[in-house]
Each structure stands twice: as structure tokens, then as C-alpha cells.
Amino acid sequence: MERGRGSLKDCSFDCNYKSGCGITRINVVPIGGDGSGQINIMFVGRDPGNNENIQKVPFVGDAGKFIRMTINAVFGENGEDKVFITNLVKCHTENNIGPNELDVKHCAGNLRREIARVRPAVVVALGETVSSYFIGRFLPTPIKMKSIVGKRYIVKYSINKVDEWKMIILPCYHPSPRNIQYYSQIRDVVKDAKRISEISQVTRI
Fold first, then answer.
1. What is the DSSP secondary-structure string of 39-69?
2. How many CB atoms are closer than 10 A to CB 46?
3. Considering only CA atoms, which of 5, 57, 3, 51 is closest in space to residue 30?
4. I need a surface site. Which of 59, 106, 132, 158 has the fewest CB within 10 A?
5. How far is CA 28 from CA 63, 66, 68, 78, 175, in A?
6. Buried b (16+ CB within 10 A) or exposed e, 179-203
7. Tens digit of pLDDT for each residue in 83-138?
8. Are strands 153-159 and 163-172 parallel, antiparallel or unpaired?
9. Helix, coil or strand: residue 23
10. DSSP 3-state assignment of 181?
11. Whole-structure pTM over 0.70, yes or no?
12. What 3-state DSSP class applies to 166?
């Protein structure tokens, strides 16, 4: 399967990266998601890294490669092509500092369009920023990943307040090499996502 199939153009994104999101820089472009969504799971990272910005594909740096490898190990050969992997913010932030609240606000509509397109039963939220975006409003701040990894959070999602369904959010440690001590727990979260997805294929959550 061709990498980068879930491009911004494919998703009909309305990208505001030229009008106030704060990430506008030369040689930085918005990067959409990747994968078919055949398996109704989304993996959501924080923002593209430098490797992603160069290759124009999400999850191709060290952290992304580990997640792709783990997905393939759990879901079988080419599993990464059957789920949908994307980022909360679509542009690489300078020096990997990460997006601020305004950046997320400007870009969140693009993720919402992807969610509407994929209709996931499960979202694996990679790292503190993404977990906060999906479930932070229900938890004391700041979020402590240790206290939420391994738990399931149900959130309602709707399209135009008409088509509504429930998604299970699985907070997960960010797969950075700096978090290598958590890699076994990351694998456990991916396995849990698979179990939930298999149930939801029969009965919509």
C-alpha cells in the first residue's frame, strides 16, 4: 500500500496553518493521516517530527516506527495499513517543542474531519498532549500519564449533532525512545485496542 494515502487533499482538510496557528514556517507543510481505517482504530500522535516533515508521511521517525512495528506485531502483516494513524496537529513544530493551546485550536478541525471519516470505535491517544485533548476535561490537570494509562474512557462523538456514536479513548505513553521503559505497556495498550475493536466489529460501541 502506498504510504501517505490519507493526505490532506484526500481528507478535504481546511488547513489554517497560513492564518494564525503559529507554526507557519518555510519548509513546513501540513501532513494528513495514513491508513485505510479498515480496522476501526485511530492512533493519534501529537504532531509530525522532522522526519515526517521531510517524507510528508506521519509516524516515520523513531517513535513512529516503533508504533508501526507494534501495530504489525499485534494486528498481523500490514496491520499499519488497516488502522488509521494521524496527529492532533498537522505541522511539525520547531525543535519539536510541541503545539500550544492556540495551535491545537486552529488545527483540531482537521482531526475532527478525520474522525468523521474513519468513525473509530477506539482512539489510542499517544502522550500527554493528545490524552489531554480527548479526556482532559474530565480529569484534574495536569494529567499524570501514570494514572491513566491502561484505563478506558468513553466519549461521545457526533457529526453535526445528528450522527452520534461512542468512542473508547485509550491513553498511552508517547513511544519516544526516551520512554523505552514503557514500551511493554505501550504494547499492552495496542493489544487492548485490538480486543475492543474485535468486539465493536460485531456490536457498535
1. SSEEEEESS--HHHHHHT-SS-SHHHHHHHH
2. 22
3. 57
4. 158
5. 20, 24, 23, 29, 23
6. beebeebbbbbbebbbebbeebeee
7. 999 999 998 887 778 888 888 888 888 898 899 889 999 999 999 999 999 987 54
8. antiparallel
9. coil
10. helix
11. yes
12. strand
Three-class secondary structure of residue 85 per DSSP: strand
Whether 150 and 104 have beta carbons less than 8 Å apart is answered as: no
Quote the CA–CA distance of 27 and 142 in Å, as a whole number.
33
Residue 52 has pLDDT above 60, yes or no: yes
Model pLDDT, residue 2: 41
Q: Letter for the amino acid at 130?
A: V
Question: CB–CB of 171/145 below 8 Å?
Answer: yes
Is-contact 123 42, C-beta < 8 A? yes
Cell digits of residue 180: 523505552
Task: At 81, list the grid cell.
Answer: 495499513
Answer for the pair 114, 32: CB distance below 8 angstroms, yes or no: yes
| Cis, peptide link before residue 142, omega less than 30° from 0 | yes
* Contact (Cβ atoms closer than 8 angstroms) between residue 6 and residue 34: yes
Longest Cα separation, the chain: 47
